[in-house]
Design a protein that fits this description.
By secondary structure, the protein is mostly helical. It is 61% helix and 3% strand. It has helices spanning 3-13, 21-42, 53-62, 68-79, 96-107, 110-114; strands spanning 83-84, 93-94.
């Protein structure tokens, strides 16, 4: 995924617009990072074979599944094809598109993507 494709995903598929898109960008990046750890564990490819309770706590700090916002956030990522879930949204794993977006987000700030020109 190129930075331009990431920009299109964020603005057209996830509908980043007014308000505070930079804060939402950082939230989504951090959430995808947590889901990346979970994905490696669920798919058996974790560098560290122990997926600890701390890893779940880290993700839980971002998502409160006792509140509808936690669920709707996961639904939103699922509809955008960034995650896929098995038995529950809580146990979602990143899709190829989710991994690609995370990689672009790791290497670019919101401002960098905002200033990306169409190829």
């Amino acid at each position: 995924m190129t930075p331009w494709q990431a920009w299109i995903c964020l603005t057209n598929e996830l509908h980043f617009c007014c308000g505070d898109p930079e804060q939402v960008y950082m939230f989504v990046r951090d959430l995808l990072e947590g889901l990346n750890k979970q994905t490696r564990y669920l798919r058996g490819g974790s560098v560290n074979p122990q997926f600890t309770d701390d890893d779940f706590v880290e993700k839980a700090k971002l998502l409160d599944f006792d509140h509808p916002t936690g669920w709707i956030t996961m639904y939103w990522l699922d509809v955008a094809d960034l995650v896929e879930h098995g038995i529950s949204c809580r146990l979602s794993s990143l899709t190829k598109k989710g991994f690609e977006l995370l990689e672009v987000m790791r290497n670019n700030t919101w401002e960098n993507l905002r200033n990306t020109e169409e190829p």
